[in-house]
Amino acid sequence: MGGEITAHEIARRAGVGIGTFYRRVGTLEALLKAVLGEVLGEIVAKGEEGLANPDPWAGFTTFALSYIHLRNELCDVNKRLGDVLDHSRAELRDRIQLLVERAQQAGMMRTDVTWEDVAFLMVAASSAGPYTLGLHAGARQWDRNLHVILDGLRSPDPSALPGEPPSLAP
């Protein structure tokens, strides 16, 4: 949606009056929470699909592409609500950890990268703005970014990583 999400804008786009919106939905926060929960559930399901793939690298990369696409849909809703779906986020963290560990155990992903690193890298791939340094991003810049990141995660012969990996916030 972009920018501030309002009940009036949602009602207008749905072709209903604001009174009808509130009778059917209750509150804007309830609607946004339901949308956020649905998209997070879809991301978790993509993690399950990745884990079910017999090829650990293909399972991970397919999940990563889906994750970035769906995550971009969440940005406005998540900003509006704040951190309200901790359980779904924990499930998502578990799927990312399992996918990364599986690819590492199969020798397909560098082992000096943690699943927490991977979570940050996937976000970095999706956060490309439309402009940087006077350059215009292509329509699939996030996809290009992710492929560069995936190539950097793949084994063998990675360079040594500086610093410490990220950790869960207290």
UniProtKB/TrEMBL annotation:
Cleaved signal peptide residues: none
Gene3D superfamilies tied to this protein: Tetracycline Repressor, domain 2
SUPFAM superfamilies (UniProt xref): Homeodomain-like, Tetracyclin repressor-like, C-terminal domain
Domain HTH tetR-type as annotated: residue spans: 1-43
UniProt xrefs under Pfam families: TetR_C_43
UniProt keyword terms in alphabetical order: DNA-binding, Transcription, Transcription regulation
Gene Ontology MF terms: DNA-binding transcription factor activity; transcription cis-regulatory region binding
DNA-binding stretch(es), residue numbering of this chain: 6-25
Name of the protein: DNA-binding transcriptional regulator, AcrR family
Highest classification ranks of the organism: Bacteria, Bacillati, Actinomycetota, Actinomycetes, Streptosporangiales
